[in-house]
Write a structure and sequence with these properties.
The chain has about 400 residues and is α/β, with parallel strands linked by helices. The protein contains ten helices and 16 strands.
């Protein structure tokens, strides 16, 4: 049975997958700078004699594994390859060698897993029909997102891709489990850059000034009311300002200008478009009513990540076949964002979560922290499961 063959190979190549992950963890590169990572992936695919193309979106790599009747169906498997600007605090032998850069979001895990999956599927390519497209994608962590660039450069074409799967580490889940959710799963994410202009002066003489700090506070509260009074209560929406700086202000000085930075997130693309207009109208209106001016620049980011209902249902069933029902967990929606969403807006997609935590071992740190790490036993499941999902989604494999 091909299921047994996949599990056998996942166990056999586990140490190799761990070694790849540790190498990548030691040599992280930031978004749009993954030159050495891209060449490393290229080298690994060449060793496996898997046809590939390097240089898509600069540092991206795409490999192709053709099974029998290769034109029957094309399934893409995606891993992101970039790291974050974080100084690692872990005391491990494979600690980052690039100060201030760390694989704190698990992209080293994703890349190692896909390389391990590639090895398994390449060895079994005479046992399944269809084509596997391996997408090693750069720049997930920074706008406009490597996924959007790769799509523009034709990653879903030649051959045309019918479906796509992606996985992401999830520390809250114990190693040995996965999480999945159909429909809307992750939010859109837009960046807000606002400048509020008034007229500065002495802090003791506010009547002679137009205080941009007071105006900014009114704008923030007014924009929050768009969420509470204009958004549909069943549509999750968040607006947060995480940075406020004044130019030239002091304890006794009212500044001329205040700059704010924030994020706007939602689960509905139509509401997202409408909300952008409301945000600008309200911000300008409040500033004007208080005698100031406001310029709000909305940088449109990643769209809503939508897990295709049919594909996700099939993925759940196939995962249960591989690991048992108790190990496949239902997930809630997340207001975090992922540029895998771009793929999900183009073709049927399913993005699931790989459990990587282990409370007994003290492996509990969230992603994007300087102590993030994983239980490396999860790498056996990550390669085996993705291989099985690929084979089953292409219409092959018996339990």
């Amino acid at each position: 049975m091909i299921l047994d063959e996949i599990k056998k190979r996942a166990r056999k190549y586990h140490k190799e997958t761990v070694d790849i992950r540790r190498h990548l963890h030691q040599h992280p590169e930031l978004s749009f700078q993954e030159k050495k990572t891209g060449h490393y992936i290229k080298k690994k695919l060449a060793e496996l004699k898997i046809p590939h193309k390097h240089g898509i979106a600069d540092n991206g790599v795409v490999g192709i594994i053709k099974g029998k009747d290769a034109g029957k169906k094309v399934l893409a498997l995606r891993a992101d390859i970039d790291a974050l600007p974080i100084l690692e605090a872990n005391k491990v032998s494979y600690k980052s060698k690039n100060p201030g850069i760390m694989h704190a979001c698990g992209h080293d895990v994703h890349t190692a897993s896909l390389l391990g999956t590639a090895k398994i599927l390449n060895e079994l390519k005479d046992r399944f029909s269809g084509t596997i497209k391996l997408i090693f994608q750069p720049a997930e962590e920074r706008l406009p997102g490597g996924a959007s660039i790769m799509i523009k450069e034709g990653v879903l074409k030649n051959p045309n891709t019918h479906h796509i799967l992606g996985q992401h580490v999830h520390p809250p889940l114990e190693a040995g489990k996965i999480g999945i959710r159909a429909g809307n799963y992750m939010a859109s994410a837009d960046e807000l850059y606002m400048t509020v202009t008034g007229r500065g002066g002495h802090g003791a003489l506010p009547m002679d000034c137009i205080d941009p700090i007071v105006i900014s506070s009114h704008i923030i509260m007014a924009l929050q009311q768009i969420i509470s009074r204009r958004a549909n209560p069943i549509t999750p929406t968040v607006i947060t300002f995480g940075k406020i700086n004044s130019t030239g202000g002091s304890t006794n000085v009212i500044p001329n200008e205040v700059k704010l930075e924030g994020t706007f997130r939602t689960m509905d693309e139509k509401w997202r478009k409408k909300a952008h207009k409301l945000l600008i109208e309200v911000a300008h209106g409040v500033a004007k009513s208080l005698g100031g001016k406001c310029k709000l620049n909305i940088v449109k980011g990643y769209p809503v990540l939508f897990n295709n209902e049919d594909l996700t249902k099939a993925t759940r069933n196939h995962a249960i076949e591989f690991m048992g029902k108790k190990n496949v967990v239902d997930l809630p929606i997340r207001m975090t964002a992922e540029d895998f969403a771009y793929y999900s807006q183009k073709i049927p997609a399913c993005f699931y979560r790989l459990g990587t935590g282990n409370k007994k071992k003290g492996i509990t740190s969230p992603v994007h922290t300087n102590t993030f790490n994983i239980d490396e036993s999860s790498l056996e499941l990550s390669t085996g499961l993705m291989s099985w999902l690929a084979v089953r989604q292409l219409g092959n494999g018996k339990i």
